[in-house]
Design a protein that fits this description.
There is one protein chain. The protein has helices at residues 3-20, 51-59, 74-86, 99-108, 131-136, 163-170, 176-184, 191-195, 221-230, 246-249, 251-264; strands at residues 36-40, 64-67, 92-98, 114-122, 147-151, 157-161, 189-190, 208-213, 235-239. The chain is an alpha/beta fold. A six-stranded parallel sheet has the order 2-1-3-4-8-9, sandwiched between helices. Strands 5-6-7 form a three-stranded antiparallel sheet. Helix 2 crosses helix 11 (251-264), helix 3 (74-86) packs across helix 4 and helix 6 (163-170) crosses helix 7. The longest helix is centred in the N-terminal third of the chain and has 18 residues, at 3-20.
């Protein structure tokens, strides 16, 4: 076959691939880069709590990072997550569960590439507010009576949820065997972190989405509703029958709202 013929075939194949490619440069202009999804767990959980959500997002083609939140204090935890975000090239959607919501709101304030915030049963404090402030402001939370303190060498305390109470308090809609494993692998939070005030409120300037369960016993539903309304949430999803770990028990719904936030962040 002549070089001319081969050249013609190659050109035809390239043209066909250009037509079929979802990232073709068309009349709309060049395709925007997909945002990276950064998932930040909260107290009494760990990064594996995002496994179900991460699996679904990876299947959709998103780059995903499940950060190992140190749970040592709002300032150091926020700085740690901010360093992860700063190392990512391109847009980022920050997702925070529980206390992790406070962390994403602070971490986002120093990174211009954060295009959306998703609060998954998460705190969204105003500057000067703490997680403890918000949880105590509304009735229905029962976390305090389940906590077990462990003394630290520096005089502080780590807090765990009593393993015998973990299922009912934290993960009531998760199968018992899975909840027992979660209880055994829970990460403690230093007590002072829950009363440490947030330095900023990135949800005031960054579009935000909220999803939570109506049977959350860690953060009262009234607090969730208040925070979502105050943040002028783009969308708020209340999952019927869901516990505090809605990302574990309803990974589909959580992945869906994260994907929605990611899609809107590209517009």
């Amino acid at each position: 076959m002549s070089r001319l013929a081969i050249s013609g075939i190659t050109a035809a194949v390239v043209s066909l691939l250009a037509i079929l490619s979802p990232h073709t440069v068309a009349a709309q202009g060049p395709a925007l880069p997909e945002p990276t999804i950064v998932l930040v767990h909260g107290a009494f959980a760990e990064s594996a709590s995002w496994n179900g959500v991460a699996r679904k997002l990876l299947t959709q083609g998103y780059a995903v990072v499940a950060a190992a939140n140190p749970l040592r204090g709002v300032k150091p935890d926020s700085e740690y997550v901010a360093s992860i975000v700063a190392a990512i090239k391109g847009p980022v959607v920050l997702v925070g569960h529980s206390y992790g919501g406070t962390i994403i709101s602070n971490a986002a304030s120093t990174n211009g590439n954060v295009k959306a915030l998703v609060f998954v049963a998460g705190f969204a404090p105003e500057a000067g507010e703490s997680a403890a402030d918000l949880a105590a402001r509304f009735p229905g939370g029962t976390l305090g009576e389940t906590l077990v303190p462990v003394a630290l060498p520096d005089g502080g305390k780590d807090l765990y949820i009593d393993q015998g109470k973990f299922h009912a308090q934290f993960a009531a809609d998760v199968p018992e065997a899975e909840a027992r494993l979660m209880a055994a692998t829970q990460r403690p939070v230093v007590e002072a972190a829950l009363s440490e005030a947030s330095a900023t409120a990135a949800w005031k300037s960054i579009p935000s989405w909220f999803i939570f369960g109506d049977l959350d016993k860690n953060i009262p539903v009234g607090a969730h509703t208040f925070m979502a309304k105050r943040a002028d949430a783009r969308r708020t999803v209340v999952v019927k029958g869901a516990s505090h770990v809605v990302m574990v028990s309803h990974a589909d719904a959580v992945a869906k709202i994260i994907a929605e936030a990611a899609a809107e962040s590209q517009r």
